[in-house]
Amino acid sequence: MIELSDSSASIAGIVLLTIVTIEFGGAFLLRIVRGQVPMTEFQKSFARAGHAHAGVLVTLGLVCLVLADATDLAGFAGWIARVGVPASAIFISAGFFLSSLGKGTTAPNKLIALIWIGAAFLAAGTLTLGVGLLTV
Predict the structure, then answer these.
(1) Number of domains observed in the structure of the chain
(2) Model-level pTM greater than 0.90?
(3) 8 A C-beta contact, residue 69 and residue 8
């Protein structure tokens, strides 16, 4: 049986609770696809991308928690290995959703920068965890 550290168990619990928001996003996405919510093609594509990234990155984040506990990473490195990917799910998804807000929007606003912040968290988390696993 795999035993999670207290840190990983707490983070996993929080991440699992966020899945409800992804479910609500999926229901909203179905309304968009059915034409019940007026959106431009740009907004539809960003809504799909935001939803997809949330689901995939939350799942990867849960896997990373188990892997982080298989390393000797502690302190800041351990924190980045555990929180990097879940944080990227928040920032990347928010970047897609928030940068496409507004009636008739056809191009992203400045909040697209959130995607790049999320990408930095994703890179930091996976690189730290990868190095941690290779040096066990």
Answers:
(1) 1
(2) yes
(3) yes
